[in-house]
Amino acid sequence: MNLSPAGAAAYLPERWGTVQLQFTNLDNEPRELLAVTFMVKDRSLQFGRKAWVPARTRLTLDHPIRFPPAEEGAKGFDILTLLLDPRQENEAILRGGLGQMQLGGRLRLAEVPATAILNLREGLRDDSMLEEIRDLPYELVVACKSSEMLGRSMAQINASILPATPEAYDSIDQIIVADNRLTHDGPAMTAIRRWLFGGGTLWVMLDRVDPRVLELLLGEEFPCQVVDRVELTTVRIEPTSRKGGGDISQREYDQAIGMVRVLTSHVEVACTVDGWPAAFWKTCGKGKLLVTTLAADGWMIQGLSEDAGPISPPPPNPDGPPGLGRPGFGRPSSGRPASGARSLDFPALQGGIGGVSLAAFQPRGEVPLPLPSSGAPENVPLAAPAPTPPDAQEAALIYEAKGRTYFVVPPMKDIATEFFSPRESPTFDMRVFEPHVTEYVGNSVPSRWLITSLLSGFWVLLVSLGALLWRTGRLEWLGAAGPALAIGVSAVLMLVGLAQRRSIPSTVASVHFVEPLPGTDDLRVSGMTDIYAPAAATTTIASQSGGWIMPDRD
Fold first, then answer.
1. Within the chain, how many helices (H) and strands (E) appear?
2. For residue 333, pLDDT beyond 50
3. Which of 207, 415, 452, 524 is deepest in the core (most CB within 10 A)?
4. Up-side HSE of residue 318: CA atoms within 13 Å toward CB?
């Protein structure tokens, strides 16, 4: 069994997240296995995942986990996973292929707000090698976050199979969709829809996404109809609402900017270009949907600066999950241009890139020669330009391309403020269901009148017996008669309590809040379940249609 981060690989306190379990069965018989994961500092709450692994196969599953509150200064969650045999009555721990009895690791805390992007680049056909390294949707999101003084950390969900449970996206505050994988992934579409209506913020770049994504996401609430696609060399962005601000942006472009012209209904248009919606909002339950029809490069300005320095390769990230914190090319990690940064000293790449040593990288048009007799180095122009290396990043380093710094135009700045606003907390506490659940389950205690009558009778009887013994001169017998009466009354109370307790059989009561999602046949369900048993017993909690039950440990 192997354990690794899954989905967006973003984890936040008191939210759900997923890890990936990979089971390998080399036997000739199928195996039923149980993986149990828990926090190193709190082993009392464990999360299990059952798996049936056919013979001589490899099975990969997502394993949802809810994370506890983070300690002050903590950088991640340390977890352990055990592999058990569910067929055994007692917990029998199985050894892994290398003989290990447990798997452990650290899941790094995500940056708040946590952002993820679906932008799988299957292939770029730009003529320039240096243009291939531009990832415009990614650059636009980074520029938007920088305009809000937010960190540049962003998860990239590049797996061919997207997470299919809403819990996998619970730690994500914003998701940007810039590819078409959701059109062929129904379970992932359902999970993202429920995440959106549960309070998430979704951005769909319609210039890069098939309109079917919106149609599958919203069903009959599909807010727009595509008219055509155009190329613009003059882009005038005019805000039309409070979410679009008041500044107009107009720019001329040498290369045409793509735009999808659409007709919209029941949406709030934030910006227009030539009267056509360029960005619009739609409220989806507790969440918000942003749709942009103008290409990413129409929303930002590319600045080239000597101070930005050469394009920097991504630094190493040994303790973080893959996909988090991808650095943008040409910008320092702080998100601001570096002052006077011209060094090519990258300790993480001392072995070279693609087999080429960094010692061979020199400024374009110059090459060092051996020291002449005078002892001074000389640089002479190259007779001919060197051939373009096959790797785009290597080419950028060799030719010392200018650092790129992207800035969003004013209308997008106002949209970014709305998009990256804090995620709303749940509108109600799940504990409001508790009184309704307890109405259906549990035993009733003996009435106050019965208890008062028994205790009053015991007091009257004890006083009467004491008076009688005092008159007969045998008051010493009260030392034995008093405890005997107390035991008798206690026995009566115990019998009454047992009768009341056994009068109600084992019961499971559930109260659910069902939220239909408009325009679709989907719904979100949450609630509370109460389990009552007259005596302590071992039982199995299960459901027919899936779901998650968190024990109340308060």
1. 9, 22
2. no
3. 415
4. 1
CA angle 332/340/383 to nearest 5° reads 100
485 CA to centre of own chain: 64
Tokens (6 digits) for 158: 């590049």
Q: Which helix (H) or strand (E) holds 288?
A: strand 287-292
Residue at token pair 């949907």: 289
- Pairing state between β 201-205 and 174-177: parallel
Residue 359 counted as domain residue: no
The DSSP code sequence of 138-161 is: HHHHHHHHHHTT-----EE---SS
Both 102 and 127 in a single domain?
A: no
Q: Same domain, yes or no, for 97 and 143? A: no
pTM equals: 0.71
Is it true that the peptide bond before 332 is cis, omega within 30 degrees of 0? no
120 within some domain? yes
CA-CA distance, 479 to 531, in Å (whole number)? 46
Beta-carbon contacts of 143 under 8 Å, excluding residues fewer than 6 positions away, are 300, 406, 407, 408
Strand 115-118 relative to strand 155-156: parallel, antiparallel, unpaired?
parallel
**Closest to 313 (Cα-Cα) out of 340, 293, 292, 333:** 333
In the DSSP assignment, the letter for residue 11 is B
Domain shared by 76 and 167, yes or no: no
């785009």: which residue's tokens?
A: 392
Looking at the structure of the chain, the number of domains it has is: 3
Give me the phi and psi of 386, to 5 degrees please. Answer: -70, 150
Q: Can you tell me whether residue 197 is helix, strand or coil?
A: helix
What are the tens digits of pLDDT across the range 431-445?
676 776 666 665 566
List all residues 6 or more positions away from 502 whose beta carbon is below 8 Å from its beta carbon: 534
Separation of alpha carbons 438 and 434, rounded Å: 6
Residue 480 contacts by C-beta under 8 Å, 6 or more apart in sequence? none
The answer to whether the beta carbons of residues 290 and 269 sit under 8 Å apart is no
What residues pair up with 272 in beta bridges, in sequence order?
A: 238, 277
Of 399, 419, 439, which one is at a domain's C-terminal end? 419
Angstrom CA distances, 467 to 304, 462, 473, 476, stand at 106, 9, 10, 12
**Domain containing residue 78: CATH number:** 2.60.40.10
User: φ, ψ for residue 364 (rounded to 5)?
Assistant: -60, 135
The one-character DSSP state at 1 is -
- For residue 134, the model assigns a pLDDT of 62
- For the chain, the maximum distance between any two Cα atoms, rounded to a whole number of angstroms, is 136
The angle subtended at Cα 223 by Cα 266 and Cα 526, nearest 5°, is 90
Residue 164 near residue 15 (C-beta atoms within 8 A) = no
Cα separation of 456 and 462, whole Å?
A: 10
Residue 304, CA atoms < 13 Å, CB-side half-sphere = 3
